[in-house]
Amino acid sequence: MLINKEDLPLVDKQSMNETHYEDIDLINSLNDLIEEFEENPSEELFVKLDEQYSKWFEHTIKHFSGEEQMMQEKKFPAFAVHKQEHDNVLNAMKNIQEDLRKTKSAAGVKNFVQNGLVRWLINHIQTMDTVTARFLEGKISLNQPVN
Ligand SMILES: [Fe+2]
Ligand SMILES: [Fe+2]
Q1: What pTM did the predictor assign?
Q2: Ligand 2 mean position to 39 CA, how many Å?
Q3: Residues of the chain with pLDDT under 50
Q4: How close is the Cα of 77 to the center of ligand 2, in Å?
């Protein structure tokens, strides 16, 4: 297991926490497949790995666009900054997917998931998502500083 659910920072909006838990499940399953594939790099496991990556990627697109929609509806002042972080990660995920398919090696995905992504995710939830959830729940207003 790469991330423990207990280590996930919680935000003030429950639907966001639920999406983050789903994300953790998908990342942990992906990580298991990376380890399995590295031990036994069969075509069958490659297909499973590629499918799991796509599933996670699609979930992440929905996860981010869901937050963006809520921010836009409530006119969250830091929308652009938050969205930029999402876009950067989606770009990286797209590149990693291309690399996976081109090289048929899990090295790039492994490095991305185990070294950068988890740290990014925890940090993103502790900063952008935390402030966004507080705002969406009416706990901070437009006139107050955001932290
Ligand atoms: Fe999020
Ligand atoms: Fe976010």
Answers
A1: 0.94
A2: 34
A3: none
A4: 14
